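Q: For a teaching session next week I want to show students how multiple molecules come together into a single three-dimensional assembly. I've collected the sequence lines for a complex. Could you give me the predicted structure tokens for the whole thing so I can convert them for display?
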Amino acid sequence: MELELERELQKHFRFSTFRTGQKEIIQDVLNGNDVLGILPTGSGKSICYQLPAIMMDGLTIVVSPLISLMMDQVKEMKANHFKKVIAINSFMNFEERREIYRNIHTYKLLFISPELLSQDFIIHLLQRVKVSLFVIDEAHCISQWGYEFRPDYLKLNSIIEKLGNPPTLALSGTATPEVQADIMTSLNKPEMIKHIYPMDKPNIAFCIEEVENDQEKNDMIIQLLKKYNIPTLIYFSSRLTAESFTRFLSEKLQGRRVGFYHAGMEPMDRVMIQQQFMNNQLDIVCCTSAFGMGINKGNIRLIIHYHIPLQLESFIQEVGRAGRDGKSSVSLLLFSKSDMLLPNHLIKSELPDAKDLSNVFGYLRDLTLQDMDLPKDDVQIQNLFNLNETQWRFLRYQLEKHHLIHDNKIMDYNKTWEDIYQSIFHVINSRVKLKISKLTEIIKWIHEDRCLRDTLYQGFQPTHSGAEFQCCSNCGFTWSEWTPEQQEIESNLGLNWENKLKKLLLLDI
DNA sequence: TTAGGGTTAGGGTTAGGGTTAGTGACGGTGCAAACCT
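A: Of course. Below is the structure for the complete assembly, covering every listed component.
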């Protein structure tokens, strides 16, 4: 068995040895166990399901949060001469999708979103093939997105059951013990075998600066970026500010290539900015939290937070994109007292409040009394109830869970309505409370006097390595002592046309 | 009396991604149309 695994790895991926954690996870998976694997990004998480998928009979299903991640995976595997892999999404046309459904039994590996996987038709289709392994990639999304933003993540447990309870593998790069427990509870698999590996970054120095206002933030950033010409990400909690700051930087830093990135942009523009940054054709990207998942660029040297993330988990994920190559990198978080308004607003806008909830129940009751269904169009419902998209999605999930609505039919009015109201009201309250406490946690960390590295990681893992370079602003970090490797002017400069062509072709296999 | 510092209030803002209808596959049964003698 031992040697056999290495032989399979060599045969299919041309690696002679496994990286940390891979083999242990794969062995447990092949033995039919449910496994939770926390491996740092860039450590080859995907091998953990790709190799079992090849070796096992039947189909491996991989739930992935982003279509772009699915595409990357399929492209990579096909480049590795593995052809029995496919991703389904709603952008494919009818014919393409029908072709996949017809040939579903010929694939070994299927990438799919939780939303598509929640559709009855897809479940019926997959019930006809043997599902050998069920994988949740970026499994922290269950905890981070499932409760409000993408409730279909919470339906995975019932989907796994409908598929005959295949062995389940949940993978993530960052998950606190709290998030790990949340994943297992949500999947209804309390007995998962855990393989947890440290994700602290010894090569990143943590720096926090309190300022009076945004003007001071701007001055400080300009001063820094004038000194350092290095691949830099600046995180914002506002799309508009990210855009306007990009213009500001372009003005102040002549010759520096600056771009912005957020979820409100055209998909083509997003791909372009990401590619340019990856290929060192952009120096600085001003972005929202949309930027990052699946970005594998080794030489990001500086991550600046212009606004405070809503939780330490997000901060760690965003900061973790620096210094993947192991070289000295810095995280700088800027904050002023007035910054508290923004995260508070974001938390509130995610969930309906008490007034919204009683409004909705009133409307629903009126509709049943008139023997009417909910409108078919969700936008119409949102307008009717005066909720935003996320609030209504959260509420729809809750109402469906309590069987008060099904599709667009509303349950007849009876005395259980009051219990359901109370139950949803309770969920909202505890979610808001939890989010506020997470925000409080990061605020507390920002005001910490002790070592920032120690206090940041203490909730995430039992121990962590010390700093490899400078530690943090509480341990005497100084900018004057920081001399990062400066960026080469143009990454392709050293390549002749033949190598450039090879590089291009490799990128597009 | 005035410049300057500190505080507060008020205005309008605010992240994240997927999806939308149709679709597959199989065997058994019942029935009607087509074909053969």
